[in-house]
Amino acid sequence: MKQRLALLGAALAIVANLSTPSARAETVLRVAMTAGDIPLTAGIPDQGFEGWRFVGYNLYDSLVLWDLSRGDRIADIKPGLATGWSVDPANNRRWIFQLRQDVKFHDGSPFTAQDVVWNFERFTKEGTPQFNPRQFAFARGYLTNFESVEVVDAHTVAFTTKQPDSLFPYNLSFLMMVSPRRSAEVGNDADAFARNPSGTGPYRFARMVPGERLELVRNADYWDKARIPRHDRLVLLPMPEASTRVASLLSGQVDWIEAPPPDAIPRLRSSRMQIVTNPYPHNWAYQLNFVDGPFADIRVRRAANHALNRADMKEMLGGVALEGYATLPPSTAYYGNPVRYEYDPAKARALLQEAGCMPCQITFAISTSGSGQMQPMPMNELVKSQLEAAGFRVNLQVMDWNALLQLGREGRERHQGVNGINISRATQDPFNGMLRFVASSQAAPRGSNWGHYNSPEMDALINEALSTFDEERRLPILARIHEKMSEDAVMLWVAHDLNPRAMSPRVRGFVQAQSWFQDLTPITVEAR
Amino acid sequence: MFGYILRRLLSAVPIAFGVSVVCFLLVYLAPGDPVQTLLPPDADAETVAQVKRMYGLDQPLPVQYLTWLGRVMVGDFGRSIATGRPVADEIFRSLGNTVLLAGLSVLVAFSIAFVLGTIAGRHAGGWLDRVVTGVAVVGVSVPNYWLGIVLVIIFSVEMMALPASGMGDGRFDPTSWEHVQYLILPVITLSMIPVGIIARTTRSAVSEVMNQEFVTTLRANGLPEWRVLRHALKNALPPVLAVMGLQFGTLMGGSILVETVFSWPGSGFLLSKAILTRDIPVLQGTILVLALIFVFTNLTVDLFQSSVDPRIRRA
C-alpha cells in the first residue's frame, strides 16, 4: 500500500511538472494585413499607410511620431527621435530640432545629428552613395517644402523650408531614420539592407520570407521604456483576400485581421472574436469640378449635399461608417462648427430649380476598388439613386483604381466632362486633410486641388495658418478653414470609415487610436 | 524522332515571343501607371514623371520592349518595380509552389477520373454511367473559387481541421503533416475541374474502344473480362494523357483564383498582384515563363503519347 501511494505521488509530481512549463513559452502576435505583399523594410515602407502602420513605425522611428496611446480623439504628432522643435525666432523658415540622446540603432551604433543629415541625403540627394530612388519616390510627397538640413551640434539639427510652414513637423513623421552603419556594411545596397534592416524602432527584424511573412521581435532596449512590446514576436502576413483573412482568424491561424468585410462581422462576433472600430482621419467623398459644369454653381453643390441620406448609407454599410457631413470627422481638434447639410430632398430640388439645372446632368469618375475606397460600387449606386431622387441625372464613369488616381492627378483641365471624382483620402494632418484640396497653389496637376477651387479669402486663411507657429493660435484658423470648406460646399460628403479590425479573444490590451497608424506594443497574447 | 523534337522546340520560340509582345502591349493599353505602386496615391504629376524617368519608363515603347528582350535573352528578367527584388527569383520561387499544387491536383484528378471514366465507359448508357457523367458535369461547372471558399468554411472555420490559407512556415517538407495539411484544400479545389474533364474524356475513349472489333475478337477468344479491359484501356489512354497534359498546363497558368482564395504563394498569386500594381517586369516575366511551360507541357505530352501509341510515331 505504501509503495502504491509513493508511486501515485511520483506520478502526480510528474503530471504537475508537465503542466508548469519550465520556461515561459514565446508569445506571438500574428497579423493578417490587407496588403498583397510584405511592405518594404528598407526605411520608408510601401503598401500605403498599412506599410507605415505595421512595418515603418515598428522597425523604425521618425523624428516626429504619432501619439497613438488614446482612442477618444483624432491622433496628433508627438516627439519621436526629436525631443522637441521650434522655429528660429530670427528666421521663420528655419526649424531647430533637438534630438533624443542615448538612442541606439539595432546594430548598436548611436543615433546622432549626422545620421539625420545622412538619411535626408538618402531621400533627396542624387549622387550620394546612399541615395535611393525608391526612398526618394516615397519621401518626395513630404518634402515639397524642404530645402536643406544641417548639423548644429551632435544632438541638434536645423531644417530650412522653402516657404514659411507651421505644419512642417507633420511631414517629418513619415520619414524613417535607418542606420548608416548597417547601410555601409551592405555597400549601400538598399535591397541587401531590406533583407537585414537596422532602425531604432520598438521591434527588431527577425526574418522574412518574401511575399509570405515578416517576423519582428521585441527590442528590449527600446528608448521609450513604456513602449517596449509586451509580446515576444510579431508575425505579419500579407492576405489581400478579405474572406481568406476572415477564415484564417476563425480557424486560429492568425490572431488579428485588418478590415473584415462588414457582412462577416456578425459571423465573427458569434465566434467570440473581438471587433474594434473607431473613427480615423478618412474621408469618403467626391471632389467637385469648380470650373466646368453644374458644380461651378454653389447652389448645385449644396443641393447635392442636401440630397444625400447618409443614415441609409451607414445602414447599408452595416453600421461600420460614420455619416460624413464635412471633410473631417467630428473628433478632430480643428473641426469647428461647420454647417450641416441635413437630408432634405425638397430643399435640394428647390436649389436646383433656382440654379436652373433640372434635371441636373452630372458625371462622377469612380473606381471598382482601391485602398480606402470601402465598397465603391454599392456606395456609388446608392449615392446615384439618392441624387436622382432629388433631380440629378447621374452618370457613373467606372474605372480601375490606378486609372482613377491618374485622372485625379491630371486635374479637371484634361477631364472637363467629369464633374466629380470619388477618391477617398487620408486626412491625418491639416495640410493633407484640408489645405491641399482648396489652396489655389495646389491646383492639379501640381497638387490635389482637382477641381480648381479658388477663393482669395481661403488662400488668405491658409497663408495665415501656415505662418502661425503658435499652436494655440493656429487651431482657430484651421477650424475656420474647415468651416469655410463646408460653407462653400467644396465636396459632396458621404462617409468616414470606421476602420474595423477583428482579433481573437486571446489578444488583450489594444487601444485603437483614431489614426491610420496603430501601436501594437501594449498588446499581450494569452496562451491557448 | 530527334528531328521531330527539334522542330517542336523551335516552333515554341515564336509562340513565346508572340505572347510576350501581346502581353507587353496589353499592359500598356490598360490605363494607370507602373510607378503608381512606388508612390503615395496623392503624388503630384511632377513626382510621377521624375520617378518614371529614374526607372526608364519614359522611353518609347519599342525601345523599352527591345531593352527588355535583350536582357531576357541572357536570362535577366530585370527587377520588380514593386518590390525591387529580381524577377527571376520571384518567378521561380512561386513557380515551384504552383508546380507542386498543379502537379498534385492533376495526379489526384487523374487517379479519380480515370477510374470513374473507365467504369462509366465500360457501362455506357447504364445508371453507373449516368452517375459518373453527372459528377463530371458538376465538377466542370462548379466555380472553383466558390468551392474553395465553401471547403474553407466547412473544414477550417467550422471543423477547424485544416488551415485556411498559406503554405505554412519554413521550407516545404512533403513528409511532415505540418506542411502537407496546407495542400489538402487547395488540391481538392483545383482538381475538381480536371476530374470532370478527364472523366468525360476517359468515358468516351473507353466506350469507343469497347465497341471496336478487336474487343469482340478478344472476347470471342475467351479472354477474361479484366484482360479485355486491360487491352481496351491501353488503347483508350493516348487521348486521356493528352487531355491530362493540357489540364496541367491550364492549372499552371489558371490557378489565379484558387491561389488568391488560399493565399497560396504561387505564380497565379504573383501574377494577380503584378496585374493590380502594373508591375510590368514581373508581369512580362511570369507570362513568358508560363507560356513556355504550356508549350513544353504539350511537347512532353506529345512525346509521351507517341511512346504509348506507336501509330503517332509512324505518322
From TrEMBL, chain A:
Record key words, sorted: Signal
Boundaries of every Solute-binding protein family domain copy: 77-439
Compartments in which it is found: Periplasm
InterPro entries according to UniProt: Peptide/Ni-bd, SBP_5, SBP_5_dom
Superkingdom of origin organism: Bacteria
Coiled-coil zones: none
Signal sequence coordinates: 1-25
Name used for this protein in its record: ABC transporter substrate-binding protein
UniProtKB/TrEMBL annotation, chain B:
Leader peptide range in chain numbering: none
Protein's name according to its UniProt entry: ABC transporter permease
UniProt topology in membrane: Multi-pass membrane protein
PROSITE patterns: ABC_TM1
Keyword Kinase attached: no
Record CDD domains: TM_PBP2
Transmembrane segments: 12-30, 99-119, 131-157, 180-199, 240-262, 282-304
Residues covered by the ABC transmembrane type-1 domain: 95-305
Cellular compartment(s): Cell membrane
Keyword Transmembrane: yes
SUPFAM superfamilies linked to this entry: MetI-like
Pfam family, one: BPD_transp_1_N
Gene3D superfamilies noted in UniProt: MetI-like
